[in-house]
Amino acid sequence: MLKRLPIRFPSDPKRVILQPFSLSESRLKKVIQRVISISEKEVEIFLKDIFLKFSHRHKNFEKLIFNNYSAVEDYIENPGVLSRKRKLLLGAYLSKEYSIEASALFNPSIVEHPDQEGVPKDSKKIIMSLRATGEGHTSSIGFRELILNKNSDIKLSNVSRFCVLPEVKNYTAEKILERRNIPSIEASDNDDLTDSNYSLSFPQDSLLSERVIFPHSKSEIAGMEDVRFVKFMDNNHSKYYGTYTAYNGKTFRVQLISTMDFINFDIETMNGPAIKDKGLALFPEKINDKFCMIGRIDGENLFLLQSENLYNWSEAEIMREPEKPWEFVQIGNCGSPLKTKEGWILLTHAVGPFRRYVISALLLDLKNPAKIIRSLNEPLIEPNKSEREGYVPNVVYSCGSIIHNDHLVVPYAMSDAYCGFARIKISNLLKKFK
Fold this sequence. Notes:
Elements: E1 3-10, E2 16-20, H1 25-37, H2 40-54, H3 61-70, H4 84-93, E3 95-99, E4 104-112, E5 124-133, E6 139-148, E7 154-157, E8 167-170, H5 173-180, H6 187-196, E9 198-201, E10 223-234, E11 237-247, E12 252-259, E13 264-269, E14 281-282, E15 291-295, E16 302-307, E17 315-320, E18 330-333, E19 338-340, E20 343-351, E21 357-364, E22 372-375, E23 396-397, E24 402-404, E25 407-414, E26 418-425, H7 426-432
Antiparallel strand pairs: 1-26, 2-3, 4-5, 5-6, 6-7, 8-9, 9-13, 10-11, 11-12, 12-13, 14-15, 15-16, 16-17, 18-20, 19-20, 20-21, 21-22, 23-25, 24-25, 25-26
């Protein structure tokens, strides 16, 4: 009943971002002095070679390397006498490339695109988010634009080899208080909150596939992992939310991304005693006037979280413990629940022997989602022979699916090496529930 689609998304090491190359103050001053000491003719020769080798790999290349020069201009005694070419050469020495997908591309989620203009009847434009991992196992968030046709076949759209980073602005403490509707913040938490709560703005003319959300705050400097996007509806108004794991190299926590258009984003912290472990997924609407999330707050079992405040969570009740042999180690969600007339379809991941990950599903009550109506007696997707080899073997994993034309369409990662899709008719899936 389940059909694997032929389209696959491998990682592409050619997708690089341009970043500042940080040096200690003493080394920085030496590099500056060396570049200043060469002749203008040498500057022109070296700069021409740099543009030949690197400018075709980045949008707005000259602006980017000039920005990296500007960041260190205070270390130059008399910057006004330097030619623009020498400044650009300095900027080049203080730049580096980072290949965001060099190690892996995995753990996708999909949502309906906010702009459906020009899409054929019975088709739908969708956005796929992906966890991209590069040098040092640092994870960032990338995107692809896809078209689902009337038969729920997949076509990739508007692909670019470029990567574009956003402009970043940190929140003030006052803005954090305003958005959370709370009177004050503990002084000890102030620095962390102003560092970890910020906004992102991408160029309006950038393509979706070019936009990269790269770690910015100290809490996520080692990775932004496994974002689970959902289109959230409230009083006929829609907004996109994504929960993700912020990792600083030692500890992790769950944070929230929100956007209306996938051009401008807000990154914010979540707190409360129920915000524990990884992999929280928000329901696409309030239930009984409360926000609801599915999570695995003890590292093993499935919980329902409820709150009247999107940023603060204290209520959690256990829904299910591992019951099947293929889930004896732990269970968790594979993205936000999907609403049908029969109930909420919740895709789950489960871990069994040899740390083998499979994807299964539960059917939850519409009004009381802590109540499991039915479940599957066997996994929906298991890693087959062609999917079990990769960066992390024996794993299939998803961070969010979609229902389109009576099909459940599931994007999933295969052993953290590449991504693909599977689909099944909703009616057939419902028949499989026991």
